[in-house]
Design a protein that fits this description.
The structure is a homodimer of 319-residue chains. The radius of gyration of chain A is 21 Å and the shape is globular. Chain A contains 13 helices and eight strands. With 319 residues, chain A is of the alpha/beta class. Chain A has one domain: Aldolase class I (TIM Barrel), CATH 3.20.20.70. Chain A has an eight-stranded parallel β-barrel, surrounded by eight helices.
Amino acid sequence: MSGRRLHIQEVGPRDGLQVETRFVETADKIALVDLLSQAGLAKIEVTSFVSPKAIPQLRDAEVVMREIQRRPGTLYTALVPNARGAERAIESRTDELNLVMSASVSHNLANLRMTQAQSFAALAETARMAQSAGVAVNVSLSCSFGCPMEGDVPEAAVLDWCSRYVGELGCGGVTLCDTTGMAYPTQVERLAQAFRERHPGTELTLHFHNTRGMGLANVLAGIAAGADRFDASFGGIGGCPYAPGATGNVCTEEVVHALQLMGYDTGVDLAVLLQASRRLPALIGHDIPSQLVKAGRRLDLHALPADFDEIRTRAEARG
Amino acid sequence: MSGRRLHIQEVGPRDGLQVETRFVETADKIALVDLLSQAGLAKIEVTSFVSPKAIPQLRDAEVVMREIQRRPGTLYTALVPNARGAERAIESRTDELNLVMSASVSHNLANLRMTQAQSFAALAETARMAQSAGVAVNVSLSCSFGCPMEGDVPEAAVLDWCSRYVGELGCGGVTLCDTTGMAYPTQVERLAQAFRERHPGTELTLHFHNTRGMGLANVLAGIAAGADRFDASFGGIGGCPYAPGATGNVCTEEVVHALQLMGYDTGVDLAVLLQASRRLPALIGHDIPSQLVKAGRRLDLHALPADFDEIRTRAEARG
């Protein structure tokens, strides 16, 4: 296991910033993405080409995508909800379009206002647009580990949708999303393993939220099943509309810190990543969930007490 | 693995409440412990028989220990720093004395103001007192996974201390404490396995703090190494003097929730445990780290949107 390469994919600029009440200035967004690139992340979800009315926080999608500095080795992706978004993303030189639908019938209707069949048809259209422009396609399947309204989502349904994305849409990657933090380790291992057996040539990403504290445990369960791509958000920003006050995505620096200690090769410069996260509170106007920013890395040591020598001398004098 | 019995040991009434600025009334403490007993926890660290001047939050140790309702199947333990504490604990009918020293030379001096040799001698004295009173003895070894001032603590040193507790003091249990959240999963697996090989007849407890977000992952690593006893604090209360604002012990309800989903038998009634945690904010005067209290259990479902039927009808009408 030791030394195995894992790909850490940053989703904070999209999944995190989209739920903030404060608009982060375009220049600040660009600087953040540039710093995340410098940190060596394998993929960065830069923004979402969604309607500026629906998500005003990301209304500067074009400018951000065009003006970031592209680092070789980092893939720049964006969430694209429809054909109009796909046009904008392609014009802005996005490396990959990330398309989305839900594994849950109810969640797909409630969130996307389409039946799953309608969503799949829309995905097929945007996938064709991307492919004729030579742009990569990834499909993100929300509620792959459970739906906050329906409960369990049958694994067979999840796997069937995945087969259609790979077989009918020809997408290069699929992300199994734990949209509201319902995934648990044994389930993750089972589903990731089943996916990999069926689609060994397709990039599998696991996208966890830490809503119920199982985020990192789920990442490790995914690794045990052979998965090697994980979404995470710097600072742990993001959230869950069904759980006010709950934390969001698994925290990038916490995932990287743990994986590096375990001997995995993440390709990430943790010190640079932490710089990016430390900028967040001033930009979004509140504290961030990241515990690593508060506690420091494992070997960021603390000074001995000022009176340590005195304590020792006294103790030793007692024999 | 499925169905394996794991012992969840509650340390919140001691490790959590001792760092609170607000004094929790004695009657409230007793009611909390009684509710935790009802939840079916295997062991509860009820209090600490420390000097009331040093930790005024636990100045009611005797009354609490005497007036709680004892549930068969729950063991009631208390932290005991010295012979005076051991006397008080034994008089108060404590089932087990939990003795403590640090695996780190500097941390032992800085926190206990004794050399390790002096601490060991004190442990030997209190262990003898407990044993002649027919009371069980557990030794908690702080900084077993690293010291915030020294960094790594050699595993050989940790294991040597453990051998002395078992061989020379005759203690029935040892707790490897991750005092400041420095443990990581591969390290946990290695150390727990080494302990179990050397001391198959001694109860091993793993005590993790979630300071850097690795708590649950460390619990699962411990289980993989055969450990079956884990300390945790309800609500995730507690803290770390070296990381202001950092969370404390792993959160009992989050650990139980995850382990139950994975098919382990914890013996814990999660609904009752959550009742206890939900009482905490009013008693300690601030929000608690528990994410499960915020987000609810995995299958605590949410209602469909009020206009869901309308959304569906409209979507389906589009064909």
